[in-house]
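Re: [ENG-882] Designed sequences occasionally contain unexpected residues at chain ends

Forwarding the minimal case from QA. Structure tokens:
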């Protein structure tokens, strides 16, 4: 065990984690030259296309130093705030972390929040200054920022460049020297933590775990403590680029387990594995529950595909433990699921993965957050879908979730960012100058305002310089109302939203205008209305398509023509009562793109 090192790489988005991981893998000859490619650990097409890491990826490397061979278990983690749950799970399986800071960008919001996650788990932090070869690099200034943040010495900071391969040996040596070997007792009963799982259509569910105490051998009968299920360890092994089967995995090491598990419900990330014959006393603690921030409905386009969608969601949940869902029904869309996501990017990625990996075309409803409703009869209700909100006369008060948002930006953008946050009902709590031209702004903001397009607009107005990190703060009363969209007097529950009263009129008007463009014209007139309770606040009309009934009536008396037109008008009136309006998929998506 003294030659084992478990560590992860943490950083803000785009500070070069995956590139640095590539260099470490290359330097230790873990992968043959011909198999090497950029973003080697990002095995999803989506990750490569967008250049972001969505999943944490573990890989084992061998590194010879001073006549001894060290085994490294490296976990590359995502940088985006929406995938911070992946980071927290990876940190739980490690003893150390490489904290990477871009020498041209400096410390950003996610750097700080990921660092605090690591410090809370007592991880040894190795600061790495990356991208020092860039013309815009500021090694001296950024080094000072790192020293202020961690309190390390200047010589502790390793200067590196993932692209040019500078400083890679220093990093590997620092891992050996500074990160402690795992502690654990090989003689005790088996105790291992599941920190990830994937679904393989040929071999069932593959569980990825870290052994804390004891050891696991091939063929052992093991038990998952939370679910109480028992399995035989048909195959165990370590994670190279390909899986490497082994006959034994000892304490301190990371490995995978295949035992032909078919049911997705039977594997829970954060569960403890132990032996059936000689179980350990207690499960491993210190694993936080996921707190979804954004809720949206996901529905199959064809109602008959509901069961397929359920299977797809279960398999996706294995691979993405931060996805939370439960079944729900909608008048307009039929059966589907109410899903909890960690943010809008997470929601977009889940939708994209359902389409790519499981071939499921889905409709997503308006995202909303979870509200706390106190009724006039002193009941407390939790509402995550607008359709669950009681009538206005039964509501005493609606409370909405608030977050504490930390924005780090260049000082020249302070004004525009403040006005954006004020516009989103934010309250400025604090303003600190980190250096002469970098400022940290702290706001209290309602989560429902941040959910939509806040992050995109923040990036746009600050030319990409502002970085955002937020933490959940609790509930506060708000003047919220339910905004209904009606087509020909029929409410479309999938387009309803819970919004602040001050913004309801503007929101309703823009939504009606957008729907007027998107709804295909019918043979009858369609009235699009936005309403709060019984009060209509906006209206647009989609004009009817008219058939040319006068074509066969050339010449002749005007009364003949009028008779035909009156007859057409009656038909249209009747049609409007029975005809239903087909809503295209773009209309449901339009709500997300209201600028």
């Amino acid at each position: 065990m003294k030659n084992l090192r478990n560590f992860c790489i943490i950083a803000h988005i785009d500070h070069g984690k995956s590139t640095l991981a590539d260099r470490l893998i290359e330097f230790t000859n873990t992968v043959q030259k011909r198999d090497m490619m950029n973003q080697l650990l990002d095995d999803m097409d989506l990750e490569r296309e967008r250049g972001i890491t969505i999943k944490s990826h573990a890989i084992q490397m061998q590194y010879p130093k001073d006549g001894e061979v060290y085994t490294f278990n490296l976990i590359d983690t995502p940088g985006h705030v929406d995938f911070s749950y992946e980071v927290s799970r990876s940190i739980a399986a490690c003893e150390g972390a490489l904290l990477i800071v871009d020498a041209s960008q400096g410390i950003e919001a996610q750097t700080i929040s990921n660092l605090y996650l690591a410090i809370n788990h007592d991880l040894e932090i190795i600061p790495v200054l990356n991208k020092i070869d860039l013309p815009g690099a500021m090694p001296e200034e950024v080094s000072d920022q790192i020293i202020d943040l961690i309190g390390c010495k200047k010589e502790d900071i390793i200067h590196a460049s993932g692209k040019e391969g500078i400083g890679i040996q220093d990093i590997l040596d620092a891992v050996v020297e500074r990160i402690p070997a795992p502690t654990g007792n090989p003689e005790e009963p088996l105790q291992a933590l599941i920190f990830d799982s994937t679904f393989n259509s040929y071999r069932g569910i593959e569980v990825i775990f870290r052994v804390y105490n004891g050891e696991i051998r091939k063929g052992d009968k093991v038990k998952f403590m939370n679910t109480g299920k028992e399995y035989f360890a048909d195959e165990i092994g370590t994670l190279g680029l390909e899986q490497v089967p082994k006959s034994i995995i000892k304490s301190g090491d990371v490995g995978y387990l295949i035992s032909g598990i078919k049911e997705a419900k039977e594997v829970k990330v954060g569960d403890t594995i132990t032996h059936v014959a000689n179980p350990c006393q207690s499960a491993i603690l210190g694993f936080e529950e996921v707190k979804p921030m954004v809720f949206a409905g996901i529905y199959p386009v064809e109602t008959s595909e509901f069961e397929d969608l359920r299977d797809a969601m279960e398999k996706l949940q294995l691979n993405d433990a931060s996805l939370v869902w439960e079944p729900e029904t909608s008048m307009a869309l039929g059966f589907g699921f109410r899903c909890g996501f960690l943010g809008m990017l997470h929601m977009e990625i889940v939708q994209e993965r359902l389409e790519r990996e499981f071939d499921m075309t889905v409709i997503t409803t308006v995202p909303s957050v979870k509200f706390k409703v106190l009724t006039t009869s002193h009941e407390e209700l939790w509402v995550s879908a607008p359709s669950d909100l009681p009538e206005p006369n039964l509501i005493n008060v609606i409370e909405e979730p608030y977050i504490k948002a930390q924005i780090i930006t260049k000082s020249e953008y302070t004004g525009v960012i403040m006005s954006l946050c004020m516009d989103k009902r934010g309250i400025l709590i604090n303003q600190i100058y980190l250096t002469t031209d970098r400022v940290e702004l702290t706001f209290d903001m309602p989560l429902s305002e941040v959910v939509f397009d806040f992050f995109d607009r923040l990036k746009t107005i600050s030319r990409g310089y502002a970085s955002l990190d937020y933490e959940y703060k609790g509930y506060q009363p708000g003047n919220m109302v339910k905004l209904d969209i009606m087509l020909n007097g029929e409410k479309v529950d999938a387009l309803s939203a819970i919004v602040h009263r001050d913004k309801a009129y503007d929101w309703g008007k823009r939504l009606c205008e957008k729907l007027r463009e998107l709804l295909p014209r019918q043979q009858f007139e369609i009235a699009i209305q936005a309403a709060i309770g019984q009060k209509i606040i906006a209206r647009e009309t989609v004009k009817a398509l008219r058939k040319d009934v006068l074509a066969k009536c050339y010449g002749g008396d005007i009364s003949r023509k009028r008779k035909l037109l009156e007859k057409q008008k009656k038909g249209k009136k009747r049609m409007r009562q029975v005809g239903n309006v087909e809503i295209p998929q773009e209309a449901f998506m339009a709500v997300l793109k209201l600028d």
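QA comment: On inspection the terminal residues look reasonable. The longest helix spans residues 558-578. Proposing we downgrade this to a documentation issue.
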